[in-house]
Design a protein that fits this description.
By secondary structure, the chain is mostly beta strands. It contains no helices and 8 strands. The strands form 2 sheets. The chain has a 4-stranded antiparallel sheet, with no helix packed on it. The protein is globular, with a radius of gyration of 12 Å.
Length: about 90
């Protein structure tokens, strides 16, 4: 499994430029505001809550298939926070 860590103060982060299977999302540092969208190209696939405590995990079981790419798009209002995505390349 690969891991991509994302600073949520960035406007947009491409974690993988190719199809991927998202397996897990881990909150590295507490996130207090804003919504983070996980996208497949231009399509929103997940919306993450705005009140995450450090150490919280979203386990996606068998995974969520992203056919174009894997992008993290946080609200501009997020002042701080970091998440790590565990994924596998599909190609």
């Amino acid at each position: 499994m690969k891991a991509g860590t994302v600073d949520l103060t960035a406007d947009l982060t491409t974690v993988s430029n190719k199809p991927a299977l998202l397996k897990i999302i881990y909150c590295n540092t507490t996130i207090n505001a804003g919504v983070t969208v996980i996208r497949d190209g231009t399509t929103a696939r997940l919306r993450l809550k705005s009140d995450w405590a450090a150490g919280e995990i979203i386990d996606l079981g068998d995974g969520l298939d992203f056919t174009a790419n894997l992008i993290v798009d946080p609200d501009n209002g997020i002042g701080a926070g970091e998440i790590t995505l565990g994924y596998e390349d599909l190609r």
